[in-house]
């Protein structure tokens, strides 16, 4: 489990396509404190550390994960920056919301414009997921816990404050970008319960 509070920005160092995709990600974590088999969310995708060095870790990414995320069939390009978060530990502060690292689908950035010091971003969500997104609710976008400002149909908006843009990859975002979307777990359960009401 994760919180959607990004703790590092990783850089894809190399990618190998074999049965699964293997990616080497450089990071600022003290890898001596990261166990083999540990979970790290990479742009919101929960991945398992399968090999590590002083300032890097390797992950294997299945074809299923490639098909359901913005990684895509061709994989990440070397040099790509990724939002990273280590798994939640008992006693850690829950600063965002509960995030599983299981991406539900891919949203697309439709519009961006400055609003004061912040940037307002409008996304188009897959139709099947739009009903789970609520005004003032939470979503995880590329692993970042964000509050939804408004929802109209399958479109929803968030505000990115300067701090968020500085300490995550959101400062690199552009219109047209594909973004990993994880809906709020609570919203999923509420919708499921409503089916039986």
Automatic annotation (TrEMBL):
<keyword id="KW-0686">Riboflavin biosynthesis</keyword>
<dbReference type="InterPro" id="IPR001783">
    <property type="entry name" value="Lumazine-bd"/>
</dbReference>
<feature type="domain" description="Lumazine-binding">
    <location>
        <begin position="98"/>
        <end position="194"/>
    </location>
</feature>
<dbReference type="GO" id="GO:0004746">
    <property type="term" value="F:riboflavin synthase activity"/>
</dbReference>
<keyword id="KW-0808">Transferase</keyword>
<dbReference type="InterPro" id="IPR026017">
    <property type="entry name" value="Lumazine-bd_dom"/>
</dbReference>
<feature type="repeat" description="Lumazine-binding">
    <location>
        <begin position="98"/>
        <end position="194"/>
    </location>
</feature>
<protein>
    <recommendedName>
        <fullName>Riboflavin synthase</fullName>
        <ecNumber>2.5.1.9</ecNumber>
    </recommendedName>
</protein>
<dbReference type="Pfam" id="PF00677">
    <property type="entry name" value="Lum_binding"/>
</dbReference>
<dbReference type="GO" id="GO:0009231">
    <property type="term" value="P:riboflavin biosynthetic process"/>
</dbReference>
<dbReference type="InterPro" id="IPR017938">
    <property type="entry name" value="Riboflavin_synthase-like_b-brl"/>
</dbReference>
<feature type="domain" description="Lumazine-binding">
    <location>
        <begin position="1"/>
        <end position="97"/>
    </location>
</feature>
<keyword id="KW-0677">Repeat</keyword>
<comment type="subunit">
    <text>Homotrimer.</text>
</comment>
<feature type="repeat" description="Lumazine-binding">
    <location>
        <begin position="1"/>
        <end position="97"/>
    </location>
</feature>
<dbReference type="InterPro" id="IPR023366">
    <property type="entry name" value="ATP_synth_asu-like_sf"/>
</dbReference>
<comment type="pathway">
    <text>Cofactor biosynthesis; riboflavin biosynthesis; riboflavin from 2-hydroxy-3-oxobutyl phosphate and 5-amino-6-(D-ribitylamino)uracil: step 2/2.</text>
</comment>
<comment type="function">
    <text>Catalyzes the dismutation of two molecules of 6,7-dimethyl-8-ribityllumazine, resulting in the formation of riboflavin and 5-amino-6-(D-ribitylamino)uracil.</text>
</comment>
């Amino acid at each position: 489990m994760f919180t959607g509070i990004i703790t590092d920005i990783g850089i894809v160092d190399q990618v190998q396509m074999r049965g699964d995709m293997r990616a080497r990600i450089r990071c600022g974590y003290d890898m001596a404190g990261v166990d083999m088999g540990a979970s790290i969310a990479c742009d919101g995708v929960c991945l398992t550390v399968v090999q590590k060095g002083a300032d890097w870790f390797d992950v294997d990414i299945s074809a299923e994960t490639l098909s359901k995320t913005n990684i895509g069939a061709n994989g990440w390009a070397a040099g790509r920056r990724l939002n990273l978060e280590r798994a939640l530990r008992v006693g850690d502060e829950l600063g965002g919301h509960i995030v599983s690292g299981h991406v539900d689908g891919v949203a697309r950035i439709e519009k961006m414009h400055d609003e004061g010091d912040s940037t307002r971003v409008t996304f188009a969500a897959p139709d099947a997921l739009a009903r789970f997104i609520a005004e003032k609710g939470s979503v995880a976008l590329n692993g970042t816990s964000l509050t939804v400002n408004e929802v109209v149909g399958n479109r929803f908006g968030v505000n990115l404050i300067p701090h968020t843009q500085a300490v995550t990859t959101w400062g690199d975002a552009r219109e047209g970008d594909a973004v990993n979307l994880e809906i709020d777990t609570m919203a999923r359960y509420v919708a499921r319960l409503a089916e039986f009401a």
